[in-house]
Specification:
Radius of gyration: 51 Å
Shape: rod-shaped
Order of helices and strands: HHHHHHHH
Largest sheet: none
Number of strands: 0
Structural class: mainly alpha
Number of domains: 2
Helix content: over 70%
Distance between the termini: 50 Å
Strand content: under 5%
């Protein structure tokens, strides 16, 4: 957890500047009043029969004005903090609403992902594609020469072989799927036997055409027709097995939606992370602003006491300077208008 200062750097800087201004003003007032005290002392004033109020009242008033200015600055600073706090509060509320909305979307996506989970081993799919490609290429090259006997180019014959091979694999796959719907064992045997005979006859003629094509072009066919048929059946059964291990359309659809929801979930989690960071920053700012306000509120009393202390020192030194420069020997200034000295604890009342 990040530790924060009791107050912000900006507030501390402004308070220090204000304190510096108070000290500068106090120095200015002090030097000016000491000069007045010495001048009055040389004139032996105030006389024993004169009230001290006209002489020291300006000191009380100037320090009261100083505090009034300081108090105004503190109140302005408090208002600025209140404004920033309201903005931060509004931002926090807005971000909290955004967080709740993003959390709702995340929960929806998580629930959807649970419903879209499948038991299909998707990591096996690339290997199936590789084996299926090997079988398909072997099938194409093996049967292409058989279709070339019709006078087509070898490339065109390979395309025909590709289409026929894929059609046979798909039809055989559908046959395996639909044979389960046969009502009796006899029906299954008959359907299965018919398919085996039909495909075997097809392979026989493709092999025959292949042999005729090779002989017509002066090549010796090293694969007998029976071996050609067996090899084609091996490739067909291998392709049909691989096809049976492929995912169903429903599983593919679920996987597609699973990927889409996963992407959206990652996006929402990233958004949630950013919102939470912003919430933390705004929350820290609100806490600092709260401490700033408390600190400034306490400074109001502290600075009043500080200025009162400066004023008392100025009054006491004014008395000393005045007595020190007098020639009449009068020094009993404390007995004159004590209220002028005692009524200094609350500077807010000095101008009333």
């Amino acid at each position: 957890m990040i530790k924060t200062k009791n107050t912000s750097q900006l507030t501390e800087t402004r308070l220090k500047n204000l304190e510096r201004q108070i000290e500068e003003k106090h120095t200015e007032i002090y030097e000016k009043e000491m000069k007045f005290a010495r001048n009055y002392g040389r004139e032996n004033r105030p006389r024993p029969d004169e009230a001290i109020s006209p002489f020291v009242r300006p000191i009380l008033e100037v320090y009261a004005l100083l505090f009034q200015k300081v108090n105004k600055e503190l109140q302005n600073l408090l208002r600025e903090i209140d404004t920033e706090a309201e903005i931060a509060k509004s931002a926090f509320s807005q971000l909290s609403g955004q967080k709740a909305e993003v959390m709702r979307k995340i929960n929806i996506r998580k629930s959807a992902l649970e419903d879209l989970e499948t038991k299909y081993p998707w990591k096996l799919l690339p290997l199936l594609f590789i084996f299926a490609g090997i079988i398909l290429v072997s099938e194409i090259f093996l049967n292409a020469f058989g279709f070339s006997i019709f006078g087509n180019s070898l490339l065109f014959s390979m395309l025909i072989s590709l289409g026929v091979s894929m059609a046979i694999v798909i039809i055989f796959h559908l046959f395996i799927k639909t044979i389960a719907y046969a009502k009796t064992l006899l029906h299954k045997v008959l359907i299965y036997t018919a398919w085996v005979i039909a495909i075997t006859v097809f392979f026989y003629y493709v092999g025959l055409f292949r042999e005729l094509y090779l002989k017509s072009n002066g090549f010796q066919d090293n694969i007998p027709i029976l071996g050609f048929i067996i090899f084609n059946w091996f490739l067909l059964l291998g392709a049909a097995y691989i096809l049976s291990k492929c995912p169903t359309w429903e599983e593919i659809t679920k996987k597609y939606h699973h990927i889409q929801h996963s992407r959206e979930l990652r996006k929402f989690k990233k958004s949630l992370f950013e919102i939470e960071n912003e919430l933390n920053e705004v929350g820290m700012k609100m806490e600092i602003l709260k401490r700033d306000k408390e600190h400034i509120a306490s400074k109001d009393t502290v600075m009043e006491r500080w200025i009162v202390g400066m004023m008392r020192k100025t009054l006491a030194d004014w008395r000393s300077e005045n007595i020190g420069t007098r020639t009449d020997g009068f020094s009993d200034l404390n007995t004159i208008d004590q209220n002028d000295f005692l009524n200094t604890n609350n500077l807010k009342t000095q101008l009333q």
